[in-house]
Amino acid sequence: xxxxxxxxxxxxxxxxxxxxxxxxxxxxxxxxxxxFKEIGDDLGLDLVQIGSIWGIASLSGIFVFIIAGVLSDxxxxxxxxxxxxxxxxxTGALRGLSGTFFALAVTxxxxxxxxxxxxxxxxxxxxxxxxxxxxxxxxxxxxxGMGFGLMLGPLISATLISPWLGGWRNxxxxxxxxxxxxxIVWLIFGHTPARTETPEDTAEKxxxxxxxxxxxxxxxxxxxGAMLFFRTASLxxxxxxxxxxxxxxxxxxxxxxxxxxxxxxxxxLFVVFFASISDKLGSRKAILFTGIVTSxxxxxxxxxxxxxxxxxxxxxxxLFMDGFMAIFTTMLLETEGVGHKYSGTAIGVVFTIAQxxxxxxxxxxNGLAAYxxxxxxLLWAALGAVALIPFFFTKExxxxxxxxxxx
Length: 407
Fold this sequence. Notes:
Elements lengths: L9 H21 L1 H12 L3 H28 L2 H18 L6 H15 L1 H13 L5 H31 L2 H22 L18 H9 L2 H30 L4 H29 L3 H17 L6 H11 L2 H14 L8 H26 L6 H12 L1 H6 L6 H7 L1
Helix pairs in contact: 1-4, 1-6, 1-7, 1-8, 2-7, 2-10, 3-5, 3-6, 3-15, 4-5, 4-6, 4-8, 6-7, 6-15, 7-8, 7-11, 7-14, 10-11, 10-15, 10-16, 11-13, 11-14, 12-13, 12-16, 15-16
């Protein structure tokens, strides 16, 4: 049976999915680092505890990404996305009720369990809406939404929203309400493509164990997972630490948070460009390699810089972040043995591997600050560089694009 044509309103759906990526998947998370100084003063947290909270936000992904992938492969995606958005709002607001380190850790963990369902289901939906030559561009637009949310959090949370609403707790309530609103809008107007019945897609109905074992035995999946593990460990450590690090050096709240804002801003501005370039070049790996090397160099020099140089290095540290993720995800969907039929579960498996790095990296790096402010950055730079090892063993996946251009 031929594959049905994509829905005519897919660009409107892309706009809604991008809004979900911004205000549900990214903003409730990126608001935390700029508020850590205020939260730490309120709850009496030290640097290691703050790093642990940032790591716990990722810990939940270890438990939920694979489940989210299976749900996205088998259930109604409209309902999965909509209900997840509403629950992200409710659990995100609960963080504002925390009075101790333990209470904050628990509420952040619960919120992360729900929130991390969203990027998996959104990525799956985008992959169903856009196939072939537009896939890289579409994933780039979705990543741009994530990047905008990651940028918006440090830009407004501590300097604008918290003073306006009267403290970090009310910021949690505000963003929680926003996520609920976005979820309701999606449930009313959202639409996802019907699942097809082609021989390829009937694999979605295969037993979960069979699908999972096929992916586990796929060498390419493990290589991609290892690459993202080290990449994520590096960037999560930096983004969780920089605002507090700069404030402790005497930077004002606005200046310290601006360093994280420009980190995400450069990434957001260039994500679609990098994604489209990878389509035109017929190469995913060229952009991934450039991103890994650029981040390694920039992060290595941050602790030895001051003033405007720190801002410039932060821009280059994050310049490829969203573009890297968009191209990486596209590469995963193009990997032999994955494709559309296993996409949700494959995303879940690879993101789970990556989350291990996000959990381990922040508290270890923050703890090294006791031996010198340069050591956390040198650790995170080194972790990012190690991503080159699995990268070199990973096969290029975009060569089919040249055939599409000929047609």
